[in-house]
Amino acid sequence: MQTAHELFLHGLKDMLDAERQLVEALGKQAEESNRPELRKAFESHREQTQNQAERLEQVFESLEEQAETEECAGIRGLIQEHDNFQEEDPSPDILDIFNTEAALKVERYEITSYEGLVRLAQEMGHRKAVQLLKQNLKEEQQTERKMEAFSKKLKPEQMGMGEEEEQEESGRGARGTSSRRRGRRAA
Fold first, then answer.
1. Helices (H) then strands (E): counts for the chain
2. Contact, 63 vs 126, CB < 8 A?
3. Given this model, what pLDDT does residue 93 score?
4. Residue 22: exposure state from Cβ atoms within 10 A (0-12, 13-18, ≥19)
5. Lowest mean pLDDT: which of 21-30, 148-157, 161-170?
6. Are 174 and 79 in contact (CB under 8 A)?
7. How many whole angstroms separate alpha carbon 45 and alpha carbon 25?
8. What is the enclosing helix (H) or strand (E) of 151?
9. Percent of the chain scored above 90 by pLDDT?
């Protein structure tokens, strides 16, 4: 890779793959959602993501380039993180919290990627590409704000440790407290 144009195409291919991966992942997250308002948010974002992929295809057209993809390892990793977490059999409320936080990670990744693509498109004078990419960026920023709002609302039903750990901790608690008190007196 030697030119800004090649770098720009690489970034576009990466993001087209990212958006296509996310269409599927957002469908899973919608199905997993315990809260109807969260399910609706993931379904809405899935539709938006499909539109963003179509805009990326339009960017390729405006450059008279083939709309191809290169695997987006960053998004693939975030999806794998979700799949690994699912294997831990989380409670529905914990899964909602995890999925909301995962969505924030994805949004921040996408925002950074689109900012870089917009900058390159501007520097190369690709006005149509700038317009399309800015629309995707704006939507990602709006989604980030929505997910942040959800993140602040969601609280786990069970705070703290599981039963076994609570029993172990309560057995150590009395000893730990008295040793802490002795430590303070000595200080």
1. 6, 0
2. yes
3. 86
4. buried
5. 161-170
6. no
7. 11
8. helix 127-153
9. 68
- Angle CA(55)–CA(59)–CA(63) in degrees, nearest 5? 165
Q: Which amino acid would we find at residue 107?
A: E
Token pair for 111: 């925002």
How many percent of the chain have pLDDT more than 70?
Answer: 83
Separation between Cα atoms, residue 90 and residue 86, nearest integer Å:
7
Long-range interactions of 113-117: CB distance < 8 A, separation 24+: 113/11, 113/14, 113/15, 113/18, 114/15, 114/140, 116/11, 117/8, 117/11, 117/12, 117/15
pLDDT higher than 90, residue 156:
no
Dihedral-angle region of residue 125 (phi above 0 means left; psi in -120 to 50 means alpha; beta otherwise): left
Q: Is it the case that residue 51 has pLDDT exceeding 60?
A: yes
Residue located via tokens 């996408």:
110
